[in-house]
Specification:
With 200 residues, the protein is an alpha+beta fold. It has six helices and four strands; from the N terminus they run αααβαβαβαβ. The protein folds into two domains: 7-47; 81-196, 2-Layer Sandwich (60s Ribosomal Protein L30, Chain: A). The chain has helices at residues 7-14, 19-47, 81-89, 103-118, 136-156, 181-187, and strands at residues 91-93, 122-129, 164-170, 189-196. Strands 1-4-2-3 form a four-stranded mixed beta sheet.
């Protein structure tokens, strides 16, 4: 055989393979790998055995929770506008062409009044809304009556009138857009929007 034409064959042909050596190397590698795997498993288990192994007196709260277990300004903070909006409720709903308050609306407004009384740093804008039925002018007037009925109720519960403003959007700002009663019912509302009193 002429190895000059295929130099790679010459290299392969001259090398004598030792199968016993290859088997021995493979066995040693497997022994070492199994020992390494057992060692890693043992270290992992040892690391999990004692949860109090570190001194936890110097901890940092990365979630921003205060002493009460909630972050200031969060929905769990009873003094935040987000709490007012989500826990107390910032809106009341009305019947068709009505501005009188239902018992459920009065319950929500009682909670709003208590929150406003205990958080004097905030003012409120009461937005009156209507569904899309009727003329623009009629719905603006109806939204104003709804906002005024909410304002009067809050004032009767002790909230200072100077902290409350009313605005009517009529049918201009719907939260649901469709031609069904389910959408209309959500749009017939008054929303109390909380804002901070500016300091001068």
């Amino acid at each position: 055989m002429d190895f000059r034409a295929f130099p790679w064959r010459a290299a392969c042909g001259r090398r004598k393979l030792s199968t016993t050596t290859d088997k021995r190397v493979g066995r040693n590698t497997m022994k070492h790998m199994s020992k390494v795997a057992l060692l890693c498993a043992g270290l992992a288990l040892a690391a999990c055995t004692n949860a109090d192994r570190f001194d936890d007196t110097n901890t940092v709260d990365l979630n921003g929770a205060g002493a009460g277990g909630f972050a200031p300004g969060s929905a769990q903070d009873p003094n935040s506008p987000l709490y007012f909006q989500q826990a107390i409720g910032d809106r009341v709903l009305f019947a068709v062409d009505q501005s009188t308050l239902s018992p459920a609306a009065m319950g929500t407004l009682d909670g709003q009044a208590q929150w406003l009384m205990s958080n004097a740093d905030y003012t409120a804008i009461i937005e009156g809304h209507a569904d899309e039925q009727g003329t623009r002018e009629y719905n603006l007037a109806l939204g104003a009556r709804r906002a005024n009925s909410v304002q009067e109720y809050l004032v009767s519960k002790g909230v200072a009138p100077s902290r409350l403003k009313v605005v009517s959007y009529g049918k201009e700002r719907p939260i649901e857009i469709c031609s069904s009663e389910a959408c209309y019912a959500k749009n017939r509302r008054a929303v109390t929007v909380i804002s901070v009193v500016p300091t001068s």
